[in-house]
């Protein structure tokens, strides 16, 4: 066989393969078209009102979820806003605490003197200052010698041997008062515990 005849046979085979592929593609497309027609007929069987009811239910669910999410957002932001208002003065209060401590120390020292007018004047200023801070939400954390030590509320700065067995693991002395602003402790009381 010559090369031309061989090439001609190969071209004929290629043509036949291409025809068979085209026929197979046409058959698959025809089957898909029939399936989609059958599906359309089935879809037409479901009534238009059922579709509308389903759509309406979906929209109602969507609306309810959106409404609930918005309500949660409103509650969360109002709670955050209230918390912000309660603690907005925190930096100012923290800056005033050393002044309040100085007043307390001054009162202790002035009590040792016999100048009652000086004591009365400083007490008036001290009480006015303390009341002003209290009106703004500042409250002392009540801690006394003999109270049980709680690491969540107290800051232990040292441990000493307990003067008696009753004070083991308890507060022996309060070195610095603690304060809270609203529900938040802004300065923990510094205490000495017994071991």
From TrEMBL:
Gene Ontology cellular component list: cytoplasm
A Pfam family hit: GrpE
Composition skew (Basic and acidic residues), residue ranges: 1-41
Region (Disordered): 1-54
Chief location: cytoplasm
GO term, biological process aspect, one: protein folding
GO molecular function, one term: unfolded protein binding
Cell compartment(s), UniProt: Cytoplasm
Functional summary from the UniProt entry: Participates actively in the response to hyperosmotic and heat shock by preventing the aggregation of stress-denatured proteins, in association with DnaK and GrpE. It is the nucleotide exchange factor for DnaK and may function as a thermosensor. Unfolded proteins bind initially to DnaJ; upon interaction with the DnaJ-bound protein, DnaK hydrolyzes its bound ATP, resulting in the formation of a stable complex. GrpE releases ADP from DnaK; ATP binding to DnaK triggers the release of the substrate protein, thus completing the reaction cycle.
Name of the molecule in the record: Protein GrpE
Source species: Zunongwangia profunda
Upper classification of the organism: Bacteria, Pseudomonadati, Bacteroidota, Flavobacteriia, Flavobacteriales
Gene name, Swiss-Prot/TrEMBL: grpE
């Amino acid at each position: 066989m010559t090369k031309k005849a061989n090439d001609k046979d190969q071209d004929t085979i290629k043509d036949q393969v291409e025809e068979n592929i085209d026929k197979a593609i046409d058959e698959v497309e025809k089957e898909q078209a029939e399936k989609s027609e059958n599906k359309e007929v089935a879809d037409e069987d479901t009534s238009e009102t059922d579709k509308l009811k389903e759509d309406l239910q979906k929209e109602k669910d969507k609306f309810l979820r959106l409404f609930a999410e918005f309500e949660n957002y409103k509650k969360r932001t109002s709670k955050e806003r209230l918390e912000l208002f309660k603690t907005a003065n925190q930096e100012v209060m923290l800056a005033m605490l050393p002044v309040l401590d100085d007043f307390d120390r001054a009162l202790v020292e002035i009590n040792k003197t016999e100048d009652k007018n000086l004591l009365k004047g400083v007490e008036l200023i001290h009480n006015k200052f303390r009341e002003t801070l209290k009106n703004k939400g500042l409250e002392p954390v009540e801690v006394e010698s003999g109270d049980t030590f709680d690491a969540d509320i107290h800051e232990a700065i040292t441990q000493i041997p307990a003067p008696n067995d009753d004070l083991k693991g308890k507060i022996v002395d309060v070195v610095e008062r603690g304060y809270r602003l609203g529900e938040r402790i802004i300065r923990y009381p510094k205490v000495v515990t017994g071991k």
